[in-house]
Amino acid sequence: MIELSALRKVYPSPDGDVVALDGIDLTVERGTVHGVVGRSGAGKSTLIRCLTGLERPTSGTVTVDGVTISALPEARLRAARRRTGMVFQHVNLLDSRTIAANVAYPLEVAGVPRRQRAARVAELLDVVGLGDRAGAHPAQLSGGQKQRVGIARALATEPSVLLCDEPTSALDGETTREVLGLVRDLRDRLGITVVIITHEPAVVREVCDAVTLLQHGRVVQSGALADVVTQVGSPLSRALVPVPDLPPGARRALVEAVYSTRAVATSAAFAAVASLGDDVEVTSATVEPLAGERVGRLIVDAPRDRVEEVVARLRAAGLEPLAAPTSEEEVA
């Protein structure tokens, strides 16, 4: 559905070129919700501007729904953009317009007749649960309601792709879950492909099927959530299934392990550690909801001369273990 190949974006500067994207290869499968995460300056904003055609890549290609938009002339690019809906962090509604008029705006720009616009707007407001607020103005809505209007507006031209740029960063936890639930429902109902730019691992856990980590304009890790989480010791695995801080005290050797509760019960994971004897113990643990299931992560403290035995026992019990994990890395 979305294919980025050797994508590179360089901004000239008097102090030297700034490389925002440095050879990005990425595939987003049709009908999935794909998260793109990374710290500030990682290249997330540039990536989304290249996906919308607002930035031309220095080299490489951007293909969306079979169309290589990075090679389109401006006139055809404007038409192609209608196949991509955009949801913004701050929504950017027009305060002087009603909710219905805000949703209708892209249809007006596209030249859709008034009667068709009205029918489409009514349909979309019902879809996002705001059918009774068509005549309200943005100032009369909560933050979550405004974001629902933004989603309805982004869907107005029946796009095949929905791009969401930090769509929940200004919302509280409960409203965030409601908005992400709506995004997931829309994907299921419409078959639309969704890309979410975010710095929040919780957003990825809540709604995404796959995730990509950017650092310094490069892809560091990418894949389906179940796959990246089992890459034990990787930055995405730790960000998506974090454990509490280790308690103070002397360390011998640490073994890190993750498991899906669908395959291994948490009690069985702890029993596997307990079976190793009193000198092996779980020092930190958590279970997190992830991609429709629950995933656990353990940190096990063991004598250095028993590390290989601990790893083998945990693996035999169905966990994915890694001896001597490296230091934590920041995703956001």
From TrEMBL:
<keyword id="KW-1278">Translocase</keyword>
<dbReference type="InterPro" id="IPR003439">
    <property type="entry name" value="ABC_transporter-like_ATP-bd"/>
</dbReference>
<dbReference type="Pfam" id="PF00005">
    <property type="entry name" value="ABC_tran"/>
</dbReference>
<dbReference type="InterPro" id="IPR017871">
    <property type="entry name" value="ABC_transporter-like_CS"/>
</dbReference>
<dbReference type="InterPro" id="IPR050086">
    <property type="entry name" value="MetN_ABC_transporter-like"/>
</dbReference>
<comment type="similarity">
    <text>Belongs to the ABC transporter superfamily.</text>
</comment>
<keyword id="KW-0472">Membrane</keyword>
<dbReference type="GO" id="GO:0005886">
    <property type="term" value="C:plasma membrane"/>
</dbReference>
<dbReference type="InterPro" id="IPR027417">
    <property type="entry name" value="P-loop_NTPase"/>
</dbReference>
<keyword id="KW-0547">Nucleotide-binding</keyword>
<keyword id="KW-0029">Amino-acid transport</keyword>
<keyword id="KW-0813">Transport</keyword>
<dbReference type="InterPro" id="IPR003593">
    <property type="entry name" value="AAA+_ATPase"/>
</dbReference>
<dbReference type="GO" id="GO:0006865">
    <property type="term" value="P:amino acid transport"/>
</dbReference>
<feature type="domain" description="ABC transporter">
    <location>
        <begin position="2"/>
        <end position="241"/>
    </location>
</feature>
<protein>
    <submittedName>
        <fullName>D-methionine transport system ATP-binding protein</fullName>
    </submittedName>
</protein>
<dbReference type="GO" id="GO:0005524">
    <property type="term" value="F:ATP binding"/>
</dbReference>
<keyword id="KW-0067">ATP-binding</keyword>
<dbReference type="GO" id="GO:0016887">
    <property type="term" value="F:ATP hydrolysis activity"/>
</dbReference>
<comment type="function">
    <text>Part of the ABC transporter FtsEX involved in cellular division. Has ATPase activity.</text>
</comment>
<comment type="subunit">
    <text>Homodimer. Forms a membrane-associated complex with FtsX.</text>
</comment>
<keyword id="KW-1003">Cell membrane</keyword>
